[in-house]
Amino acid sequence: MKYLNYRFLILFMIVLISFFFIYSNYFQKNKISQNINLEVKKESSTNSNIIKDIKYFSQDLKGNQYTIIANEGEIDLDNSEIIFLKDVNAFIELIENNETITVVSDFGKYNTFNYNTIFSKNVKINYKDNSITGDYLDFSMMENMLIISKNVVYKNPTNTLKADVIELDTITKDTKIFMHNSEDKVNIEGRN
């Protein structure tokens, strides 16, 4: 009987130690994995998604080329196709006319999938002897369209024109000028 009590006691101790070992080991593993997750979260919040000296090049089916250069870019964490740019220069080279349209701005938002670009702050467009300045420029390579808005000033060698919005077809150079305030339209038309 004494022998049976020792066996029972040893078996009970083994089960108890095993239970304690399994429980503590399981609990410790969860604790470690939680720490790892916290560390990963900390690292991802401090990781940089900023790229220096960016240059993108694209070409349409007609051979027109679009090059965009920026001193710095930041990839959008929600959409990796979007890059926010600083100190932007862009060149639209039109093969048919052997002409280059240049765009300069403080900031830009570039879509690497469809090449659409929104330029903002101190936007300047130059082509031939013409220049257009404004606060915002929306460029679509697919539609060959530049739409510049807010505080727009169009200059050529003989004229200066202020407008709210100017649309410029990059291929045909057809230009549409819009004023939101009808009084401004009359004043501009009266000056010509």
What does this structure look like?
The chain folds into two domains: 1-47; 50-191, Lipopolysaccharide (LPS) transport protein A like domain (lipopolysaccharide transport protein A fold). It has a nine-stranded antiparallel sheet, with no helix packed on it. It has helices at residues 2-46, 182-191, and strands at 50-59, 65-75, 82-94, 99-111, 117-127, 130-140, 145-155, 160-169, 175-178. The model is unreliable at 28-47 and 185-192 (pLDDT under 50). The protein has 192 residues and is α+β, with helices and mostly antiparallel strands. The chain is rod-shaped and about 110 Å long. A hairpin with a 4-residue loop joins strand 7 and strand 8. It starts with a helix and ends with a helix.
Question: What's the topology here?
Answer:
Elements: H1 2-46, E1 50-59, E2 65-75, E3 82-94, E4 99-111, E5 117-127, E6 130-140, E7 145-155, E8 160-169, E9 175-178, H2 182-191
Antiparallel strand pairs: 1-2, 2-3, 3-4, 4-5, 5-6, 6-7, 7-8, 8-9
Features:
alpha+beta; rod-shaped; lipopolysaccharide transport protein A fold; 2 domains; 192 residues; single chain; 9-stranded antiparallel β-sheet; 2 helices; disordered C terminus
